[in-house]
Amino acid sequence: MAECNVSIDKKNLPGVKEVCRDFAVLEDHCLAYTLQEQERQTAQPGGRSRPKNFESHLASNVNKSKLVQKDLQVAKKLQEEEDQWAKVQCQKQHNDLERQDNEIAKEIQEQLVRQAEQQRQQEEKDALESNFEEEYFEDHGGGGIQPVCARCVRLKR
């Protein structure tokens, strides 16, 4: 048996319903052609048809029924595969969104921790400056007087 090396673009494959519909149209066309050929072959020259063999007709119906059953099984299998693929894609998308949400939440949490640490450091710095100024004025007796030394002026800023 010859090997077929055909690449299939899976992104542009038609859906199962569309394939089944197209297949049914082709099958109907083949059936119509077969029936026309049978009618043409059994027609008498005078325009009247000969009676068809009952066993042949029955066998034809059985074969057609088996073909329809097989086609139905194939269509169901294809639909199940397509449904499973869609379910997997949906789960992948859900997992990607969940991962992105977790990353964003982690970034926000880290930012909040940094802001809290900066605020704590600023409050400590402000408290140290306030304590230093109070101690300085108490030690130098300048209750309401502004500091005049360069060091105190820098600390005041």
Describe this structure in words.
- This protein has 157 residues and is mainly alpha-helical.
- The protein has a domain of 105 residues.
- The chain contains three helices and no strands.
- The longest helix is centred in the middle third of the chain and has 87 residues.
- The model has no long low-confidence stretch (mean pLDDT 80).
Comma- or semicolon-separated keywords:
0% strand; mainly alpha; single chain; rod-shaped; 3 helices; 157 residues
Q: What oligomeric arrangement do these chains adopt?
A: single chain
Alpha carbon gyration radius: 44 Å
Beta strands, count: 0
How many helix segments?
A: 3
**Spatial shape:** rod-shaped
Which regions contain 5 or more consecutive residues with pLDDT less than 50? none
**Topology as a string of helices (H) and strands (E):** HHH
Report the mean per-residue pLDDT as an integer.
80
Largest β sheet strand count, sense and barrel closure: none
Structural class of the secondary elements?
Answer: mainly alpha
Q: In percent terms, what proportion of residues is strand?
A: under 5%
Distance linking N and C termini: 91 Å
Helical proportion?
A: over 70%
